[in-house]
Every structure is written in C-alpha cells, then in structure tokens.
Automatic annotation (TrEMBL):
Annotated InterPro entries: NDK-like_dom, NDK-like_dom_sf, Nucleoside_diP_kinase
UniProt keyword list: ATP-binding, Kinase, Nucleotide-binding, Signal, Transferase
Classification lineage: Eukaryota, Viridiplantae, Streptophyta, Embryophyta, Tracheophyta
Organism this protein belongs to: Hibiscus sabdariffa (roselle)
Active-site residues annotated for this sequence: H145
Binding site for ATP: K36, F84, R112, T118, R132, N142
Stretch forming the signal peptide: 1-24
Metal-binding found in the keyword field: no
Reaction equations catalysed: a 2'-deoxyribonucleoside 5'-diphosphate + ATP = a 2'-deoxyribonucleoside 5'-triphosphate + ADP; a ribonucleoside 5'-diphosphate + ATP = a ribonucleoside 5'-triphosphate + ADP
Protein name: Nucleoside diphosphate kinase-like domain-containing protein
C-alpha cells in the first residue's frame, strides 16, 4: 500500500513537472504582416487589426510606409524572375502599406493560417473566414502579406525596421 502511494505521489509530481516545464518553454515568435495598398484604401485596416488582436497576437511594431519601386523590388527580390513581378511592384507601390511585427507563440504559422491562401479569389471559397477572403481580390491583389518561415520573418522584419538580422536569418542566406 505504502509502495503504491509513493509511486502515485512520484507519478503526480512527474505530471505536474512536465506540465510546468512545457508551459515555461512556450516561446514567443515574430512574423511580419503587411496590409497592402488595397487593404488600406478599402478601409480594412481597423478590421484586420481587430482580427489580429482577437487572435492573440501582439502588434509590437508598426509603421505606414509608401514603398518606392526600389524598396518593393528589393523586398520581393526572390520573385524578380517571375512573370508577375512587374505587376506586383506596381501594385505594392500604388499606395501606402501598413507594416507590422506580430508576436505570439508560433506566430509565422498562425498568421499564415489567419490570412489564408495566396489566391484571395480561391480563399473566398475554401477559407471564407480568412483575412484574404475578407479583403483580397485575386492571386495578385491579396490584401495582406505574411512571412513564409521563421528565417524569412526575421529577414523581412530587419528589412523594414532596420534591425541587424538575427543569427539564424543570416545563416540562411
Ligand atoms: P505575398 O504573400 O505578398 O508574396 C508574393 C506576392 O506576389 C503575393 O503575395 C501576391 O501578391 C503576388 N503573387 C504571387 N503569385 C502570383 C501570381 N501567380 N500572379 C500574380 N501575383 C502573384
């Protein structure tokens, strides 16, 4: 009986320890969110920010900026060989954008879930509650941007907020 009680006590302590240590290791992650020119001109900014905050993100930095062609081309350099590149640069420079650093646990994946598929036209059918379904139009005019990985997020945040890129972002390139 005593042995049973001792074992139960150790087992309970083990469970409590695992629970506490897993909570303690929940790390905040950052990602970059952009409300694109159509999102701003369509007056979606406040609705999008409300969704962001209600989804548990902290908006730790934000700024409204008018991109010029050089900024936009540098930001989207990985797409420079794509057929849609010229139109993308025209779109991204057509008006101001709101750039935000969003923080929460697993922020990159959660933000991408929240914004939905790149093609806003398809998002309206497959992900009707997503942000792109709410305010995007099509594959190009998709209203919002989200970093596609932790490394991209750190690089993109450094691009806009002039931080030195973190070690893991640098090691990617
Ligand atoms: P974003 O998530 O910001 O990343 C690259 C952007 O390029 C994308 O959103 C769209 O705005 C645009 N884009 C991606 N694929 C295409 C495509 N096939 N045709 C036109 N625009 C595209």
């Amino acid at each position: 009986m005593t042995q049973f009680l001792t074992r139960s006590l150790f087992f309970s302590m083990f469970i409590v320890f695992r629970f506490c240590s897993s909570n303690g290791s929940d790390e905040q992650e950052r990602t970059l969110g952009i409300i694109k020119p159509d999102g701003i001109s369509g007056n979606y900014t406040e609705r999008i920010k409300q969704v962001i905050l209600e989804s548990g993100f902290e908006i730790s930095k934000e700024m409204v900026i008018q991109l010029d062609e050089e900024n936009a081309a540098n930001f989207y350099a990985e797409h420079s060989s794509k057929s849609f590149f010229t139109n993308l640069i025209r779109y991204m420079t057509s008006g101001p954008v709101l750039v935000m650093v969003l923080e929460k646990e697993d922020a990159v994946a959660h933000w991408r879930d929240l914004i939905g598929p790149t093609n806003a036209g398809k998002a309206k059918i497959t992900h009707p509650h997503s942000i792109r379904a709410m305010c995007g139009v099509d594959l190009e005019k998709n209203c919002v941007h989200g970093s596609d990985s932790h490394q991209s997020a750190e690089r993109e945040i450094a691009f806009f907020f002039k931080e030195a890129p973190s070690e893991d972002a640098v090691s990617q390139t």
